[in-house]
Amino acid sequence: MSRKSSLSGFMELIPDEQVQFDAIVRSIRATYALFGFDTVDHRCVEPLDTLMAKGETSKEVYVLSRLQEEKDGNSSSKRLGLHFDLTVPFARYVVENAGHLKFPFRRSSIGKVWRGERPQAGRFREFYQADVDIVAKCENGQTEMQALPMFNDLEIVEAVGFALKQLESQGAPAATIHINNRKLLQGCYEALGVKDYPKALQIMDKLDKIGDAAAVEELLAAGETEENARKCISIAKIRATTVDELQDNSLIMELAERSDLAKTGLSELVYLLESVNMSEYDVKCVADLKITRGLDYYTGSVFETFLDGLENYGSVASGGRYANLTSSFDGKNQYPGVGMSIGVSRLFSLLSDSEKLNTTADGESAIMVIVNDETSRPSSNYVCAKLRASGVTSFVCPNSNKFGKQIDFAARRGVRFVLFIGDDDKLQLKNIETGEQNEYSI
Amino acid sequence: MSRKSSLSGFMELIPDEQVQFDAIVRSIRATYALFGFDTVDHRCVEPLDTLMAKGETSKEVYVLSRLQEEKDGNSSSKRLGLHFDLTVPFARYVVENAGHLKFPFRRSSIGKVWRGERPQAGRFREFYQADVDIVAKCENGQTEMQALPMFNDLEIVEAVGFALKQLESQGAPAATIHINNRKLLQGCYEALGVKDYPKALQIMDKLDKIGDAAAVEELLAAGETEENARKCISIAKIRATTVDELQDNSLIMELAERSDLAKTGLSELVYLLESVNMSEYDVKCVADLKITRGLDYYTGSVFETFLDGLENYGSVASGGRYANLTSSFDGKNQYPGVGMSIGVSRLFSLLSDSEKLNTTADGESAIMVIVNDETSRPSSNYVCAKLRASGVTSFVCPNSNKFGKQIDFAARRGVRFVLFIGDDDKLQLKNIETGEQNEYSI
């Protein structure tokens, strides 16, 4: 990963790195499957009006055109773009395929997304996300919370927390999921009389970057009073790892008393914090009232996730709850949803750059079959075919150089075992690291 | 797959179909790994000049632009496009990363590619390919065949043949790999005195579609004699499943006598046909002199693959050998390569449309944990966490309706087993198809 990419922002790995990356993806996929999520592979291309359906987006979209079309000067067809996340396509997919889905629908999706942003450390133009979401359909006058109770938020936090936990065996540091609630924030801001809630949220979203003084200034410029600006910052600084700690905070308890919305939000946050702390999955979490998820349209829980010791690199898994995931695509039905997305490429680049990964090459368990001379290559092929048929990764040496040279060839590839046909036509397996050699039968 | 896609040419599956698709990809990936190929995940985006490096391409390229850039009227940066296959990015990757690769380099890559063509049955604008390639580097004056002997072509045919064979357990019909050789064709055409070899090749490539009469007409129009036109067609009709059968053909044997190039090509074809027939992998192949691979720049073996009974849908796995894979990107070094690509999306759509697939939903082996009442949900969560920790795919019922209703909920999802906490706090596992019920311990 220290190599410079030939196309800035587009990660491409050499084989040893790819082994580590693949192991991460395989592990996340296995955890999501274990939790019983169905997989959906979203097409990467959407009509531009689908991508822009929520109106303003901070994500820079790549637009597609056909080279041929350009030449013909014919661009009458619908304009298309690459998806910038897996949530917009999921919302569109749910509305399109509602008749084929069983609600609440549990879906995982691991795939590439594209954003034309300026590349930085850990920020790519083409990158993988690994999403899990649960979406319900409100039927027979159900409310959001009847159709999709809070235990779904817990399930999402546990799935992602457990997926990250599994990566610790590959060298990843422990992760902490930071939880907040938009209802709580909005309710508190309303109780305070904050004038421009969305604007205040955006300013708080960048508090860590700009610092308190600049945040106060921006809030004042947005028309808030100095007292409210100070209180917004006090709220943003609340952190609690237990329910007791959270309820010890007099500011938040007082505001919750003054706003039903804040009270509801607080009770949701309390439920989640308590449940995760009680959970079997050993997931670390903290109530962190600084978490806002900026411009995204969440309406309840919001999540960000930081790796111990690598907090400065930003969140590696984020998400939240939507009262109506599909509001842009279906005016009639309400589909509440909750989900999180692991930023796999960012996660990998953090771990790789900080030399945390210990996954070894696949070659470790592979066997190379020696070729005694070119005329006996078919015999080596035969042996190799038998190995493969019994499920052992193997290949035949592509040269028939001297024995020692073939062993060097295997060693340079990180292959630890070679198999050869001995004098008496018996197979010999040699560990080229230890020199140990044994008769072998397939 | 009978549903109409909301964006023509862009396949997206409902969960039951996705299970089948994922099983195919997983199986192919496992076979490629078994054969000891390293994986490379190519970025999807290339500079346009890389995509067009070979000059004329019949593939319609999607060009990218940033929406923001359009607005700013600033498009000074390098133009980018989506890759239309995994071979061009591989060639570029080999040159860029040669210092990090060990040659001969065995690489597999499974990923999406895009072509702005008119969608048809089995032909998509966004689709998966699953490639295997072996690429060597000519060093110290090595010739192509010294650096990359013909047994590499055999290895590629076996890897793809075995990968397709493994899919038969999922319901795929047997596949036959059709092999030809560009040297043989070019040598024969030279011996005949065919004037425009590339043009003749293109006409023969569509022989099945246009028929003999039209092919003769096109060859005449291209300046060939009627006798040569007839002979080109006679050559294209040669098929042989054994070496004896091939060598019984007097036309091909006579032409091979008159051209060294044809003789070399014939001996390569004979080697492959003979080796595959002797191979342990039970791969069906046929020498088929109609196979040309049209405009593609192969220089030796060429391959196409047809499924028994579904021949009319076209090839599901194609490829061939390049004397110099990287000629467009590296003027100094020679990297001969041989590879094949399974058209996974096409393969899936053929099998799905012809109702061949028998893969069942993952739910078959999953367990749903019953919730006795909402207050005891944490106990059900606890049981579920234990199941998952022991590697069993499971989830907790998202409602706490009556027992029978929860069982209906599981059944509608294709889940066969439910687990519940019985009167004496003992776990009971129930097969909801057979009604069988047993005490269960995790």
Report on this model:
2 copies of one chain form a homodimer. Chain A has about 450 residues and is α+β, with helices and mostly antiparallel strands. Chain A folds into 3 domains: about 1-165 and about 325-355, Bira Bifunctional Protein, Domain 2 (BirA Bifunctional Protein, domain 2, 2-Layer Sandwich); about 175-305, BirA Bifunctional Protein, domain 2; about 365-440, Anticodon-binding domain (Rossmann fold, 3-Layer(aba) Sandwich), CATH 3.40.50. Helix content of chain A is about 40%, strand content about 20%. The first copy, chain A, is built from 16 helices and 17 strands. In chain A, the strands form 3 sheets. Chain A has a 9-stranded mixed sheet with strand order 1-5-6-12-11-10-7-9-8. In chain A, a hairpin with a 5-residue loop joins strand 16 (about 425-430) and strand 17. In chain A, helix 7 (about 180-190) packs across helix 12 (about 250-260). Chain A is elongated, with a radius of gyration of 27 Å. Chain A starts with 14 loop residues before the first helix and ends with a strand. The relative contact order of chain A is 0.13. Strand 3 of chain A pairs antiparallel with strand 3 (about 60-65) of chain B.
